[in-house]
Design goal:
Length: 281
C-alpha cells in the first residue's frame, strides 16, 4: 500500500520481506531487468475514430503552419496508438519515431527522466507531437529538440501548442536557480528507490558545491517528501531522484529545491541558455 511512482519504483525488497515468488507491477513498461518482477503496462482505451478525428485536426494545423516533418513521442499508457497515428499522418507529413537508449524499451517511448527517443538524429524534425495528457512530459520534449511541441491529447480530445506553459515553467526555474546562487548550504537528496538511486552523482555534486566554498550534505530518503526536510536548516535542496519531484512540485516545497542540471547552472558550470531536463540512464 506504499505509493509507487513508476517502473523505477518497483519494490524489489518486498519479494524478500514477504517471501514471495513474483512482484506484479501494474502501469508501466519495465526498467528493471529483475526476472522476479512482471511489468504489466496500463493502456488507455480510446475509440479508434476519436484518434482518427484528432489526426485530421492535427494535419490541418501542420499544413496551416507549413510544418512538413514531425517527431512523435509518448508514454507507455498511449504507446499502442502510435502505429495508428503514423498511418493517419504518413503521406501528409514526414513522421519520425525511434527507440531511445537506457531505460527506454519501445519505439517512440518517453519517460519524464529520459527523452532519448527524441534526441536520435533520425528523428530531428520541424516539430514534435507529444501524444498524451498533462504538461510534464511535453515540457521535457521541448528541450530534446528545441522545436515547437504540440500536445495531442486523446483524453481531452484536444490539440495544443505548448507555449505559455513552457515560458511560465522556465521563469519559475530561473527564479529557483537565482535563489540557489545565494545559498550557502545544500542538501543533496539520494533516493533509495532502485531506479532513482544515483549515489555517485550525488557525491560528485557534493564535491562541486564544496569547491565553491559552500556546505553540502548527503540526505538519503526512500519517499522524497517535502515534510521530511522541514527543520534541516538547509538553504537549498538538490534532487538526484526523479526529476518530476522538482518539475511538478517545487512550488509546494518550503525549501528551494532544484535538479542537478539546475545546480550546475547556479554554480556557473553550464549556461542558462543550455538549460536541460535531468535525464536518468
Ligand atoms: S524517475 Fe520519475 S520520470 Fe523516471 S520513470 Fe521514475 S517516476 Fe517516471
Amino acid at each position: 500500500m506504499d505509493p509507487c511512482f513508476g517502473a523505477c519504483d518497483a519494490d524489489e525488497n518486498l519479494l524478500n520481506t514477504l517471501n514471495a515468488d513474483l512482484l506484479i507491477h501494474l502501469g508501466h513498461l519495465p526498467i528493471s531487468e529483475n526476472k522476479n518482477i512482471l511489468f504489466i503496462p496500463f493502456k488507455y482505451p480510446f475509440e479508434e475514430k476519436k484518434i482518427k478525428k484528432l489526426c485530421k485536426i492535427m494535419e490541418k494545423e501542420l499544413i496551416k503552419r507549413k510544418i512538413n516533418s514531425i517527431a512523435l513521442g509518448t508514454t507507455a499508457q498511449y504507446i499502442e496508438w502510435v502505429p495508428l497515428i503514423k498511418k493517419e499522418l504518413e503521406g501528409k507529413v514526414k513522421i519520425f519515431t525511434a527507440k531511445g537508449t537506457g531505460r527506454i524499451k519501445e519505439d517512440a517511448q518517453l519517460l519524464g527522466c529520459n527523452y532519448s527517443s527524441l534526441k536520435i538524429p533520425s528523428t530531428h524534425a520541424e516539430a514534435i507531437i507529444y501524444l498524451g495528457d498533462g504538461f510534464f512530459h511535453p515540457l521535457g520534449a521541448v528541450h530534446a529538440q528545441e522545436k515547437p511541441v504540440f500536445v495531442l491529447n486523446p483524453k481531452e480530445e484536444s490539440i495544443k501548442l505548448l507555449e505559455k506553459e513552457k515560458n511560465l515553467f522556465l521563469r519559475k526555474r530561473f527564479i529557483a536557480i537565482a535563489k540557489a546562487k545565494e545559498a550557502e548550504s545544500f542538501g543533496i537528496i539520494i533516493s533509495r528507490k532502485p531506479g532513482q538511486k544515483f549515489l555517485n552523482k550525488a557525491i560528485e555534486l557534493k564535491k562541486k558545491i564544496e569547491l565553491h566554498g559552500k556546505k553540502a550534505f548527503l540526505l538519503s530518503v526512500d519517499y522524497v517528501n517535502e515534510t521530511y526536510f522541514i527543520g534541516t536548516k538547509i538553504d537549498c535542496l538538490v534532487n538526484t531522484a526523479c526529476p518530476r519531484i522538482v518539475i511538478d512540485d517545487a512550488e509546494n516545497w518550503k525549501i528551494n529545491i532544484i535538479n542537478s542540471n539546475e545546480l550546475l547552472i547556479a554554480l556557473g558550470e553550464i549556461k542558462w541558455e543550455d538549460y536541460a531536463m535531468d535525464e536518468l540512464a
